[in-house]
Write a structure and sequence with these properties.
Elements: H1 7-22, H2 32-35, H3 39-46, H4 56-206, E1 209-215, E2 225-232, H5 240-246, E3 249-251, E4 254-256, E5 261-265, E6 268-275, E7 285-288, E8 294-295, E9 302-310, H6 320-326, E10 329-331, E11 334-336, E12 341-346, E13 350-359
Antiparallel strand pairs: 1-2, 2-6, 3-4, 5-6, 7-9, 8-9, 9-13, 10-11, 12-13
Helix pairs in contact: 1-4
Protein backbone atom coordinates (compact mmCIF):
# COMPACT_ATOMS: atom_id res chain seq x y z
CA UNK A 1 0.00 0.00 0.00
CA UNK A 2 1.25 3.61 -0.67
CA UNK A 3 2.28 5.79 2.29
CA UNK A 4 0.80 9.24 2.38
CA UNK A 5 2.87 12.04 4.02
CA UNK A 6 1.77 15.31 5.51
CA UNK A 7 2.02 18.62 3.71
CA UNK A 8 4.98 19.56 5.75
CA UNK A 9 6.96 16.71 4.47
CA UNK A 10 5.92 17.67 0.94
CA UNK A 11 7.07 21.18 1.58
CA UNK A 12 10.37 20.04 2.90
CA UNK A 13 10.83 17.74 -0.09
CA UNK A 14 9.81 20.29 -2.66
CA UNK A 15 13.18 22.07 -2.92
CA UNK A 16 14.82 18.75 -3.54
CA UNK A 17 12.36 17.92 -6.25
CA UNK A 18 12.80 21.31 -7.74
CA UNK A 19 16.51 20.93 -7.76
CA UNK A 20 16.31 17.58 -9.43
CA UNK A 21 14.06 18.97 -12.03
CA UNK A 22 16.13 21.98 -12.69
CA UNK A 23 19.24 19.97 -12.95
CA UNK A 24 17.97 18.71 -16.18
CA UNK A 25 16.75 15.26 -15.20
CA UNK A 26 13.83 14.84 -17.45
CA UNK A 27 12.87 11.47 -15.97
CA UNK A 28 12.24 12.96 -12.57
CA UNK A 29 8.76 14.33 -12.10
CA UNK A 30 8.25 18.07 -11.68
CA UNK A 31 7.71 19.49 -8.23
CA UNK A 32 4.34 18.80 -6.71
CA UNK A 33 3.79 22.55 -6.38
CA UNK A 34 3.91 22.86 -10.11
CA UNK A 35 1.58 19.96 -10.58
CA UNK A 36 -0.88 21.42 -8.10
CA UNK A 37 -0.84 24.78 -9.70
CA UNK A 38 -4.30 25.57 -10.88
CA UNK A 39 -5.04 27.13 -14.20
CA UNK A 40 -6.85 29.93 -12.46
CA UNK A 41 -3.69 30.98 -10.75
CA UNK A 42 -1.84 31.01 -14.02
CA UNK A 43 -4.61 32.95 -15.58
CA UNK A 44 -4.57 35.50 -12.78
CA UNK A 45 -0.82 35.90 -13.08
CA UNK A 46 -1.09 36.61 -16.73
CA UNK A 47 -3.60 39.38 -16.14
CA UNK A 48 -1.13 41.56 -14.27
CA UNK A 49 -1.84 40.64 -10.79
CA UNK A 50 0.59 41.78 -8.19
CA UNK A 51 3.69 39.75 -7.97
CA UNK A 52 3.18 38.87 -4.44
CA UNK A 53 4.92 35.76 -3.25
CA UNK A 54 2.72 32.73 -2.46
CA UNK A 55 3.28 30.87 0.69
CA UNK A 56 4.31 27.20 0.76
CA UNK A 57 1.31 26.18 2.86
CA UNK A 58 -1.14 27.36 0.24
CA UNK A 59 0.72 25.55 -2.51
CA UNK A 60 0.81 22.31 -0.58
CA UNK A 61 -2.88 22.53 0.24
CA UNK A 62 -3.83 22.96 -3.41
CA UNK A 63 -1.57 20.20 -4.68
CA UNK A 64 -2.77 17.52 -2.22
CA UNK A 65 -6.17 16.72 -3.80
CA UNK A 66 -4.58 16.27 -7.18
CA UNK A 67 -2.05 13.88 -5.81
CA UNK A 68 -4.76 11.94 -4.07
CA UNK A 69 -6.81 11.81 -7.26
CA UNK A 70 -3.74 10.75 -9.24
CA UNK A 71 -2.85 8.07 -6.75
CA UNK A 72 -6.46 6.90 -6.69
CA UNK A 73 -6.47 6.77 -10.46
CA UNK A 74 -3.19 4.87 -10.51
CA UNK A 75 -4.19 2.32 -7.88
CA UNK A 76 -8.01 2.23 -7.98
CA UNK A 77 -8.45 1.90 -11.75
CA UNK A 78 -6.44 -1.30 -12.03
CA UNK A 79 -8.13 -2.64 -8.94
CA UNK A 80 -11.54 -1.68 -10.36
CA UNK A 81 -10.64 -3.13 -13.69
CA UNK A 82 -9.44 -6.25 -11.92
CA UNK A 83 -12.61 -6.42 -9.83
CA UNK A 84 -14.78 -5.71 -12.89
CA UNK A 85 -12.99 -8.39 -14.83
CA UNK A 86 -13.26 -10.69 -11.87
CA UNK A 87 -17.01 -9.99 -11.59
CA UNK A 88 -17.44 -10.43 -15.31
CA UNK A 89 -15.40 -13.64 -15.18
CA UNK A 90 -17.52 -14.89 -12.32
CA UNK A 91 -20.70 -14.10 -14.30
CA UNK A 92 -19.22 -15.79 -17.34
CA UNK A 93 -18.26 -18.76 -15.20
CA UNK A 94 -21.77 -18.83 -13.75
CA UNK A 95 -23.22 -18.67 -17.25
CA UNK A 96 -20.89 -21.42 -18.38
CA UNK A 97 -21.72 -23.41 -15.28
CA UNK A 98 -25.45 -22.97 -15.97
CA UNK A 99 -24.88 -23.93 -19.61
CA UNK A 100 -22.86 -26.96 -18.56
CA UNK A 101 -25.53 -27.91 -16.02
CA UNK A 102 -28.26 -27.49 -18.64
CA UNK A 103 -26.28 -29.50 -21.18
CA UNK A 104 -25.58 -32.10 -18.52
CA UNK A 105 -29.30 -32.28 -17.77
CA UNK A 106 -30.08 -32.59 -21.47
CA UNK A 107 -27.43 -35.26 -21.85
CA UNK A 108 -28.82 -37.08 -18.81
CA UNK A 109 -32.32 -36.84 -20.33
CA UNK A 110 -30.97 -38.14 -23.64
CA UNK A 111 -29.17 -40.94 -21.81
CA UNK A 112 -32.42 -41.78 -19.98
CA UNK A 113 -34.26 -41.75 -23.31
CA UNK A 114 -31.57 -43.93 -24.84
CA UNK A 115 -31.85 -46.27 -21.88
CA UNK A 116 -35.60 -46.46 -22.36
CA UNK A 117 -35.14 -47.03 -26.09
CA UNK A 118 -32.53 -49.68 -25.39
CA UNK A 119 -34.84 -51.30 -22.86
CA UNK A 120 -37.70 -51.18 -25.36
CA UNK A 121 -35.48 -52.61 -28.08
CA UNK A 122 -34.25 -55.33 -25.75
CA UNK A 123 -37.84 -56.15 -24.72
CA UNK A 124 -38.97 -56.10 -28.35
CA UNK A 125 -36.05 -58.32 -29.28
CA UNK A 126 -36.97 -60.71 -26.49
CA UNK A 127 -40.62 -60.76 -27.59
CA UNK A 128 -39.53 -61.15 -31.21
CA UNK A 129 -37.29 -64.04 -30.23
CA UNK A 130 -40.19 -65.63 -28.36
CA UNK A 131 -42.52 -65.14 -31.32
CA UNK A 132 -39.86 -66.40 -33.71
CA UNK A 133 -39.35 -69.48 -31.56
CA UNK A 134 -43.11 -70.03 -31.46
CA UNK A 135 -43.37 -69.51 -35.21
CA UNK A 136 -40.48 -71.88 -35.84
CA UNK A 137 -42.11 -74.45 -33.60
CA UNK A 138 -45.45 -73.98 -35.34
CA UNK A 139 -43.78 -74.14 -38.76
CA UNK A 140 -41.96 -77.29 -37.75
CA UNK A 141 -45.26 -78.83 -36.59
CA UNK A 142 -46.99 -77.69 -39.78
CA UNK A 143 -44.14 -79.09 -41.85
CA UNK A 144 -44.39 -82.38 -39.98
CA UNK A 145 -48.16 -82.54 -40.51
CA UNK A 146 -47.75 -81.52 -44.15
CA UNK A 147 -45.12 -84.20 -44.67
CA UNK A 148 -47.43 -86.73 -43.05
CA UNK A 149 -50.35 -85.62 -45.23
CA UNK A 150 -48.11 -85.66 -48.30
CA UNK A 151 -46.96 -89.16 -47.48
CA UNK A 152 -50.58 -90.24 -46.98
CA UNK A 153 -51.61 -88.53 -50.22
CA UNK A 154 -48.71 -90.14 -52.02
CA UNK A 155 -49.71 -93.51 -50.63
CA UNK A 156 -53.30 -93.05 -51.73
CA UNK A 157 -52.08 -91.75 -55.07
CA UNK A 158 -49.99 -94.86 -55.52
CA UNK A 159 -53.01 -96.99 -54.63
CA UNK A 160 -55.19 -94.97 -57.03
CA UNK A 161 -52.54 -95.29 -59.73
CA UNK A 162 -52.46 -99.05 -59.21
CA UNK A 163 -56.27 -99.16 -59.32
CA UNK A 164 -56.22 -96.97 -62.43
CA UNK A 165 -53.76 -99.30 -64.11
CA UNK A 166 -55.93 -102.26 -63.16
CA UNK A 167 -59.00 -100.39 -64.37
CA UNK A 168 -57.28 -99.56 -67.66
CA UNK A 169 -56.25 -103.17 -68.04
CA UNK A 170 -59.80 -104.28 -67.30
CA UNK A 171 -61.17 -101.72 -69.75
CA UNK A 172 -58.77 -102.96 -72.40
CA UNK A 173 -59.90 -106.52 -71.75
CA UNK A 174 -63.54 -105.44 -71.84
CA UNK A 175 -62.94 -103.48 -75.02
CA UNK A 176 -61.32 -106.52 -76.57
CA UNK A 177 -64.20 -108.68 -75.36
CA UNK A 178 -66.72 -106.19 -76.73
CA UNK A 179 -64.88 -106.14 -80.02
CA UNK A 180 -64.97 -109.92 -80.15
CA UNK A 181 -68.64 -109.98 -79.11
CA UNK A 182 -69.48 -107.38 -81.74
CA UNK A 183 -67.64 -109.41 -84.31
CA UNK A 184 -69.53 -112.53 -83.29
CA UNK A 185 -72.80 -110.59 -83.22
CA UNK A 186 -72.11 -109.20 -86.68
CA UNK A 187 -71.27 -112.66 -87.89
CA UNK A 188 -74.43 -114.03 -86.28
CA UNK A 189 -76.49 -111.19 -87.73
CA UNK A 190 -75.07 -111.78 -91.15
CA UNK A 191 -75.81 -115.47 -90.78
CA UNK A 192 -79.38 -114.87 -89.67
CA UNK A 193 -79.97 -112.30 -92.36
CA UNK A 194 -78.77 -114.83 -94.85
CA UNK A 195 -81.00 -117.46 -93.30
CA UNK A 196 -83.94 -115.05 -93.27
CA UNK A 197 -83.32 -114.23 -96.88
CA UNK A 198 -83.25 -117.90 -97.70
CA UNK A 199 -86.38 -118.52 -95.57
CA UNK A 200 -88.25 -115.77 -97.36
CA UNK A 201 -87.31 -117.34 -100.64
CA UNK A 202 -88.49 -120.71 -99.39
CA UNK A 203 -91.68 -119.24 -97.87
CA UNK A 204 -92.51 -117.65 -101.13
CA UNK A 205 -91.90 -120.95 -102.86
CA UNK A 206 -93.89 -122.85 -100.20
CA UNK A 207 -96.74 -120.28 -99.81
CA UNK A 208 -96.74 -120.14 -95.93
CA UNK A 209 -99.65 -118.22 -94.42
CA UNK A 210 -101.78 -117.92 -91.28
CA UNK A 211 -105.34 -119.22 -91.49
CA UNK A 212 -108.34 -119.48 -89.19
CA UNK A 213 -107.64 -116.24 -87.23
CA UNK A 214 -109.96 -116.58 -84.24
CA UNK A 215 -110.47 -114.12 -81.32
CA UNK A 216 -111.07 -115.24 -77.76
CA UNK A 217 -114.61 -114.79 -76.50
CA UNK A 218 -113.62 -112.73 -73.45
CA UNK A 219 -111.42 -109.66 -73.18
CA UNK A 220 -108.12 -109.73 -71.35
CA UNK A 221 -108.28 -106.05 -70.28
CA UNK A 222 -109.35 -102.65 -71.59
CA UNK A 223 -109.20 -102.79 -75.41
CA UNK A 224 -107.11 -105.98 -75.30
CA UNK A 225 -108.07 -109.42 -76.67
CA UNK A 226 -106.13 -112.55 -77.61
CA UNK A 227 -106.17 -113.92 -81.15
CA UNK A 228 -104.81 -117.21 -82.49
CA UNK A 229 -104.19 -118.62 -85.98
CA UNK A 230 -102.81 -121.77 -87.64
CA UNK A 231 -99.74 -121.81 -89.92
CA UNK A 232 -100.17 -123.83 -93.13
CA UNK A 233 -98.09 -125.05 -96.07
CA UNK A 234 -95.10 -125.97 -93.92
CA UNK A 235 -92.35 -127.88 -95.75
CA UNK A 236 -91.79 -131.34 -94.42
CA UNK A 237 -88.14 -130.70 -93.63
CA UNK A 238 -88.65 -127.18 -92.15
CA UNK A 239 -88.36 -126.58 -88.34
CA UNK A 240 -91.84 -125.48 -87.31
CA UNK A 241 -91.05 -122.94 -84.55
CA UNK A 242 -88.55 -121.06 -86.67
CA UNK A 243 -91.11 -120.71 -89.44
CA UNK A 244 -93.74 -119.59 -86.89
CA UNK A 245 -91.70 -116.69 -85.53
CA UNK A 246 -90.85 -115.39 -88.98
CA UNK A 247 -94.29 -115.19 -90.66
CA UNK A 248 -96.16 -111.83 -90.18
CA UNK A 249 -99.94 -111.34 -89.95
CA UNK A 250 -102.35 -108.39 -90.26
CA UNK A 251 -105.08 -107.91 -87.59
CA UNK A 252 -107.51 -104.94 -87.70
CA UNK A 253 -105.29 -103.29 -90.27
CA UNK A 254 -102.14 -103.47 -88.13
CA UNK A 255 -99.24 -105.77 -89.14
CA UNK A 256 -97.64 -107.91 -86.44
CA UNK A 257 -94.24 -109.24 -87.55
CA UNK A 258 -94.28 -112.19 -85.17
CA UNK A 259 -96.69 -113.79 -82.71
CA UNK A 260 -96.46 -113.50 -78.93
CA UNK A 261 -96.54 -117.29 -78.59
CA UNK A 262 -95.86 -120.23 -80.88
CA UNK A 263 -96.63 -123.90 -80.21
CA UNK A 264 -98.00 -127.18 -81.44
CA UNK A 265 -101.68 -128.14 -80.86
CA UNK A 266 -103.10 -131.43 -82.16
CA UNK A 267 -100.19 -131.76 -84.55
CA UNK A 268 -100.71 -128.26 -85.98
CA UNK A 269 -98.55 -125.16 -85.49
CA UNK A 270 -100.43 -122.24 -83.87
CA UNK A 271 -99.54 -118.67 -83.04
CA UNK A 272 -101.14 -116.27 -80.53
CA UNK A 273 -101.26 -112.45 -80.49
CA UNK A 274 -102.37 -109.96 -77.78
CA UNK A 275 -104.17 -107.28 -79.77
CA UNK A 276 -104.66 -103.85 -78.09
CA UNK A 277 -105.57 -101.75 -81.14
CA UNK A 278 -108.97 -101.24 -82.76
CA UNK A 279 -110.70 -103.70 -80.46
CA UNK A 280 -114.17 -102.17 -79.94
CA UNK A 281 -115.58 -105.25 -78.25
CA UNK A 282 -113.20 -104.65 -75.30
CA UNK A 283 -113.65 -100.87 -75.15
CA UNK A 284 -115.38 -100.33 -71.77
CA UNK A 285 -116.26 -97.12 -69.90
CA UNK A 286 -117.91 -95.94 -66.67
CA UNK A 287 -121.34 -94.34 -66.53
CA UNK A 288 -121.63 -92.01 -63.51
CA UNK A 289 -124.18 -92.96 -60.87
CA UNK A 290 -125.39 -89.50 -59.81
CA UNK A 291 -127.57 -90.77 -56.98
CA UNK A 292 -124.64 -92.46 -55.25
CA UNK A 293 -122.05 -89.65 -55.19
CA UNK A 294 -121.30 -88.27 -51.72
CA UNK A 295 -118.66 -86.46 -49.65
CA UNK A 296 -116.03 -88.68 -48.12
CA UNK A 297 -116.45 -88.91 -44.37
CA UNK A 298 -113.43 -87.71 -42.40
CA UNK A 299 -111.68 -86.21 -45.46
CA UNK A 300 -112.10 -82.48 -46.08
CA UNK A 301 -113.04 -81.16 -49.55
CA UNK A 302 -113.29 -84.59 -51.17
CA UNK A 303 -116.27 -86.08 -53.04
CA UNK A 304 -116.51 -89.70 -54.17
CA UNK A 305 -118.09 -90.60 -57.50
CA UNK A 306 -119.26 -94.08 -58.48
CA UNK A 307 -119.59 -95.44 -62.00
CA UNK A 308 -120.98 -98.58 -63.62
CA UNK A 309 -118.70 -100.45 -66.03
CA UNK A 310 -120.45 -100.37 -69.43
CA UNK A 311 -119.93 -102.57 -72.53
CA UNK A 312 -119.01 -105.32 -70.11
CA UNK A 313 -120.44 -108.63 -71.43
CA UNK A 314 -121.51 -111.48 -69.24
CA UNK A 315 -118.73 -113.63 -70.68
CA UNK A 316 -116.21 -111.24 -69.11
CA UNK A 317 -117.66 -111.26 -65.60
CA UNK A 318 -115.05 -113.67 -64.36
CA UNK A 319 -112.44 -111.11 -65.49
CA UNK A 320 -114.15 -108.06 -63.96
CA UNK A 321 -111.16 -107.01 -61.78
CA UNK A 322 -108.79 -106.73 -64.75
CA UNK A 323 -111.38 -104.95 -66.89
CA UNK A 324 -112.30 -102.47 -64.13
CA UNK A 325 -108.68 -101.76 -63.12
CA UNK A 326 -107.62 -100.92 -66.73
CA UNK A 327 -110.63 -98.80 -67.82
CA UNK A 328 -110.24 -94.96 -67.63
CA UNK A 329 -112.69 -93.04 -65.40
CA UNK A 330 -113.90 -89.57 -66.56
CA UNK A 331 -115.91 -87.19 -64.34
CA UNK A 332 -116.21 -83.38 -64.07
CA UNK A 333 -113.50 -82.65 -66.66
CA UNK A 334 -111.14 -85.05 -64.84
CA UNK A 335 -109.88 -88.22 -66.51
CA UNK A 336 -108.20 -90.91 -64.44
CA UNK A 337 -106.23 -93.78 -66.01
CA UNK A 338 -107.99 -96.20 -63.71
CA UNK A 339 -110.51 -95.95 -60.84
CA UNK A 340 -109.35 -95.72 -57.26
CA UNK A 341 -111.57 -98.63 -56.23
CA UNK A 342 -113.33 -101.49 -58.03
CA UNK A 343 -116.13 -103.83 -57.05
CA UNK A 344 -118.89 -106.17 -58.27
CA UNK A 345 -122.50 -105.99 -57.19
CA UNK A 346 -125.76 -107.79 -57.86
CA UNK A 347 -128.57 -105.80 -56.15
CA UNK A 348 -130.39 -103.14 -58.19
CA UNK A 349 -128.14 -103.95 -61.13
CA UNK A 350 -125.50 -106.58 -61.79
CA UNK A 351 -122.01 -105.78 -62.95
CA UNK A 352 -118.72 -104.19 -62.04
CA UNK A 353 -118.34 -100.67 -60.63
CA UNK A 354 -115.52 -98.24 -59.97
CA UNK A 355 -115.08 -95.09 -57.88
CA UNK A 356 -112.77 -92.06 -57.79
CA UNK A 357 -112.19 -89.27 -55.22
CA UNK A 358 -112.33 -85.71 -56.60
CA UNK A 359 -111.56 -82.42 -54.82
CA UNK A 360 -114.75 -80.52 -54.00
CA UNK A 361 -114.69 -77.36 -51.87
CA UNK A 362 -118.35 -77.82 -50.96
CA UNK A 363 -117.45 -80.90 -48.91
CA UNK A 364 -116.42 -79.85 -45.40
CA UNK A 365 -115.82 -82.02 -42.36
Amino acid sequence: MPVYHSTQNFAEREPLLSRNHHRGNPSSPPPYSELSRSPSSDFSSTRGSTDEPVSSNTTTTKAFPRAVILICLIFVLPVGAFLLGHVLGIERLDAERHYIARRTQQLNAQEDLLDQVNFTLIEDRRLWDVRRSEEERRLAEDRRLWNARRADQQKRLDISSAKLRDWETSLNRQAEQIRLDRQRWNDERDRREEEERQNKIERKKAGLRWIDLTPETKCLSFERRMYQAKLTHLPNHAPGNEWCWSVPIKIHGHVYNQPDWCGMKDGELYGQWYVDKNEPGCHTWFSILDNEEACVAGVSRTRRFFGKLENFDREDWDNWREMCATTPFAVRNFTFERPHQCGFRGLSWVGAWGSVDVQDDTCLE
